[in-house]
Design a protein that fits this description.
Strand order of the largest sheet: 1-9-6-5-4-3-2
Bound molecules: fe (iii) ion, zinc ion
Shape: globular
Order of helices and strands: EHHEHEHEHHEHHEEEHEH
Strand content: 5-15%
Oligomer: single chain
Mean pLDDT: 97
Radius of gyration: 18 Å
């Protein structure tokens, strides 16, 4: 069974998200833990959480890939931005434990804004060392980045360095990776022409056991462009056939695939149906 879904609006609460996912025939989904551009968050409603948990269990919706807000920069230079990142990260993790235990919390390593990649990596690892808890059931997923501006995480080596600096084994075990097909392509990895080679490189540098989820996007730009402009499936430079190879690759086929393509709900439903029709597993 292909596990596939898309970003779902979290307005209206958790149960409403489950219903929206069902309407699109999605069996996994992503959602922002708070306004992607803003900061504050509403208290959880226990009734809503109960209804949501029962619903996703009954409908087989699983391996949710929650997304941290874009304003969360774990390697910011400014002290107040760093403080927000740490506060939001640990508050989001607590909410994940309460509302959706055992799922994924995906975040961008961040932008070092001139401090340099090394300094950025140190700050990201420092934050993880402070916010991860040995008892948490949520895995946190570093996202592979396109390398736009001063983004950390364009090279697999950068993600590896972050993971290595979380030395406590019980905390280190909570860290995984979410591979974004648009981002790795924009970063210069040839997932369209040499998917096996990219996965071999991922395994050599990070280890495939860390790979927990895939953001399935086409890209508006050429390989290595470092632009990060997502395209609809089959309408970009990666192309439909290459993305069909991604969902069917034996190493990837059991992972959750999340669409982050520029679509409305009808467009997402079409892409979900198209990819299900091309899944061989
Ligand atoms: Fe992302
Ligand atoms: Fe992504
Ligand atoms: Zn992106």
């Amino acid at each position: 069974m292909l596990r596939i879904g898309c970003h779902i609006s979290s307005s209206g609460g958790y149960y409403a998200m489950a219903q929206r996912a069902e309407a699109l025939e999605a069996n996994t989904f992503a959602f922002f833990t708070r306004n992607p551009r803003g900061g504050s968050v509403k208290a959880l409603d226990p009734e809503d959480i109960r209804a949501f948990s029962a619903e996703i269990q009954q409908k087989g919706i699983d391996r949710l890939v929650a997304h941290a807000p874009y304003t969360l920069n774990p390697c910011a230079e400014k002290e107040n931005v760093l403080q927000f990142a740490e506060m939001a990260f640990s508050e989001d993790l607590a909410r994940m434990e309460a509302a959706s235990p055992g799922q994924y919390y995906n975040f961008h390593p961040g932008s070092h804004v001139g401090q340099g990649t090394e300094a950025g990596i140190d700050k990201i690892a420092g934050l993880l060392n402070r916010v991860l808890k040995p008892e948490q059931t949520t895995a946190v997923l570093l996202e592979t980045m396109a390398g736009k501006g001063s983004e950390v995480g364009r090279r697999f080596e950068e993600l590896r360095a972050i993971i290595d600096r979380v030395e406590d084994a019980s905390l280190n075990a909570k860290i995984g990776v979410c591979m974004d097909t648009c981002h790795v392509w924009d970063a210069g990895y040839d997932i369209a022409g040499d998917l096996d080679g990219v996965l071999t490189e991922f395994d050599r540098v990070i280890g495939l056991d860390r790979l927990k989820a895939v953001h399935l996007n086409d890209s508006m730009n050429e390989k290595g462009a470092a632009k990060d402009r997502h395209a609809k499936i089959g309408e970009g430079k990666i192309g439909l056939e290459a993305l069909v190879r991604v969902i069917n690759h034996p190493i990837l086929a059991k992972l959750p695939f999340i669409l982050e393509t520029p679509n409305d709900e009808a467009g997402y439903a079409e892409e979900i149906a198209l990819l299900k029709s091309r899944y061989l597993g």
